[in-house]
Every structure is written in C-alpha cells, then in structure tokens.
Design goal:
This protein has about 60 residues and is mainly α. The chain has helices at about 5-15, 20-35, 40-55. It is globular, with a radius of gyration of 12 Å. This is Antitoxin.
Length: about 60
C-alpha cells in the first residue's frame, strides 16, 4: 500500500474514534464545496458525504 492509502487508513481509524468531530469536518467540506460551486454539484457532494460517513460508521446523515 502506498503512502496515500496508509494516510487514508489512518484518517478512517481516527474518524471511527471521533465520529462527532469527523461529521463536523465532512459537513464543513460539503458546505464549502457547495458554496464555491453555487450548489451546482449538490447531489454529488451529498453522495460523497454519505459515503464518507459510512466509511467510519457514523450514525448521522448531516441533514
């Protein structure tokens, strides 16, 4: 596994240990992208945020 994969695994493990903080980060990133693109990719950012939350087992959907 390369460095990027190792970093992703570390981030996922950290998110699993702190799901509330991870949720805030995912929500902030989603909001920033939506603001910068004028919500042009809202459906895609929703899907990506949901996938990120599932990857660390968050029970919330951010909405």
């Amino acid at each position: 596994m390369g460095k990027l994969g190792e970093m992703a695994n570390k981030a996922k493990q950290m998110a699993k240990g702190h799901p509330d903080q991870a949720d805030k980060g995912v929500e902030g990133a989603e909001r920033a992208i939506d603001e910068r693109t004028g919500n042009k990719y809202d459906a895609q950012t929703d899907k990506a945020a949901d996938a990120a939350r599932r990857s660390y087992g968050s029970g919330t959907d951010g909405h």
